């Protein structure tokens, strides 16, 4: 629940003063006070103290703590706005500015993730603040004592409690109660939390120091559950809390210790050991939370035996789920593409009772089915079947000079394995010697990747369900180029805190060319942040152009789309419209794609229309002049701006001037632009007057069939709108790009673009809050915008690639590598460029989350950054570059 990030890479706006984001200095070379449990210090921030790079004075303290200790650090001052940073032994940073809204108090409460020395950094919110302060530190023995009692281990035990105002709170505002119990070495334990009053959230820290958490067990909003086994016996710390801040109510907590592992698995239903059955899904059957009816059966198998479960129906789209004795889920929908056949082939990873769940692809489907179940034999399967259920691996490795390297210079090791469709895996990479990065590559390319997992410092973790059966590889590498050292890699089956896939497949079937009327209602499934959702799926062929449109009057529409080949796309306000969302893409692989139709804000309801059309059959999407520029005389013109050296030292940025130079070179060398058609402005050259002159110079030379490219990498900001409110900026804020001498607002920049005679313009802005330009700038036909983050989110420096921003790096790579040219026609059109950039961003910024209410912009977690692509009247097949 505590959010730590590599804040030293944050690209700060000129007005932002999020202190931790600017930490780029070490702590050697000056005195560090040692503190002990219960100590209270008085100190003074004063001129002459050490300073952060951004200008804030700071004092530093250290203390030692053991894994599981409850740490509380409290900072108060009546003379400046306090800011507190706690740095763990692994380098994770936990910080707080205004505790409970107070400008005079900062406080960090956390549980020590490991043994070692912790560092406390006392500083101020704004540069140059001085004055006296009081610092208090305390560390207790973890979750025991006065937090609601505990367990002694052994057989099933339980407790009831209540989350209420006055309880301990997490830094993110959720109330919490804490318990502890003991278990012996190798003992399997099960912790279960239920509540009818709030959405329960369960956190468990094992004696080995591992932190596990679960939110909605098997899709239930009223239950959280964790199974664990510790190699070493000892004390488990249990934290009972809620999903959202401020939730209260009664709960029940139960603990079971097996004394040596679980036996027998889940209870059987229905058919027992039957090798063949016929049945029927009907309206009186048990249902998944998402509305699908289900029947249950059991199948006994011994470790190493082959298991085959086969389900057919000519009355509904069958879906089969096999649950192993330890809770791992393996499932299949359309076996070999058939809508009437589902089948699971695997090898029993352990002996015991396996549960078979017969259900349907979509909610409410009914009808008869035939089920056959077999167990026996060994040696796996041949032909199209799966040759065995991967049971995991545990490796200790070393990144060292001489290893293979990625494109960015990072050393890497590869661990291959065979996986089964639907198999759930937890992949964890840890190291005390470098910042880890782990990725998973499957039969259809990159599946997922992670840098810093929540609550794990610079360690990495993936929880994932394998999309297909086949050969996979785990990529173990580092965040930065050239890092070396030892690491531990653990891949376990059935792990992770993601919701089981059992309840996620409730999509209604569509086809390309279909249009449906739907409605978001209070009975729909809710998304992670409270939005109601409907899901649909359709089949597309590799290379097929697809356009998905969602329109509504009563709700602010939001679309998400996922599919094979790593496709993950989303759109909020198409062309700035709150009532329309559009996703256009070219399918990289044949297979099933899933659409989520939802709203931007929590709790919105109302009717909508959803359509899926073939892009080549929609006149609005036909490429102009056969997909080319429109004539032999077409030329590319560009203005490239990058600023690293701002007038104030504290505003300097790494690599951003270089971004402009490299983008200029990439468009010149690979994108068909003549050198004489470009203007490059860096650092002190990038003044407002020079930029306006550059626009005037090129506008006099360009024709209406030319292409104009504008590139900017540097600071961005948000300012109050001067004058009356603008319809394009209902939040009352203008976004800016910060030139060397003056800011330029989105409205002013839009006026500059209006002076250009071209009908085709590509705008690339890699700066904080740049997504806000979409509403003003992408307002005329022929313009396409690429923005590094949303209008209220900061953008990161891409230190990993020695680039000022990720958008700058990936835009250049799209031209230089040719990988964005999906159809291989040596042209780069709008859809290819946007799809390549979105996929590249996915590897660096995995999670989409709607922005909640923050006290200030500086409270926004930098991991919310994701690419914004917006067009206005530009066909997805509009060609911007003829690749050389």
The first-to-last residue Cα distance is: 49 Å
Please, what is the average pLDDT?
75
Q: Report strand %.
A: 35-45%
Number of strands: 59
Low-confidence stretches: 1-32, 141-156, 258-275, 379-388, 495-506, 617-632, 845-864
The description of the largest β-sheet is:
6 strands, mixed
Radius of gyration: 28 Å
Structural class: mainly beta
Question: How helical, in percent, are the residues?
Answer: under 10%
Coarse morphology: globular
Number of discrete helical segments: 6
Give me the secondary-structure topology:
Layout: E1 10-11, E2 33-34, E3 40-45, E4 58-65, E5 70-76, E6 82-87, E7 93-96, E8 105-111, E9 116-124, E10 131-140, E11 157-163, E12 168-169, E13 175-183, E14 188-194, E15 200-205, E16 211-214, E17 223-229, E18 234-242, E19 249-257, E20 276-281, E21 286-287, E22 293-301, E23 306-312, E24 318-323, E25 329-332, E26 341-347, E27 352-360, E28 367-376, E29 392-399, E30 404-405, E31 411-419, E32 424-430, E33 436-442, E34 445-450, E35 460-465, E36 470-478, E37 485-493, E38 508-509, E39 515-520, E40 525-526, E41 532-540, E42 545-551, E43 557-563, E44 567-571, E45 580-586, E46 591-599, E47 606-614, E48 636-642, H1 656-670, E49 678-682, H2 688-699, E50 707-713, E51 716-720, E52 733-738, E53 743-745, H3 746-754, E54 760-766, H4 773-777, E55 783-787, E56 795-796, H5 806-817, E57 827-829, H6 830-844, E58 868-872, E59 879-882
Parallel strand pairs: 2-4, 38-41, 48-49, 48-50, 50-54, 54-55
Antiparallel strand pairs: 1-56, 3-10, 4-9, 5-8, 5-10, 6-7, 6-9, 11-19, 12-13, 13-18, 14-17, 14-19, 15-16, 15-18, 20-28, 21-22, 22-27, 23-26, 23-28, 24-25, 24-27, 29-37, 30-31, 31-36, 32-35, 32-37, 33-34, 33-36, 39-47, 40-41, 41-46, 42-45, 42-47, 43-44, 43-46, 51-52, 52-53, 55-58, 57-59
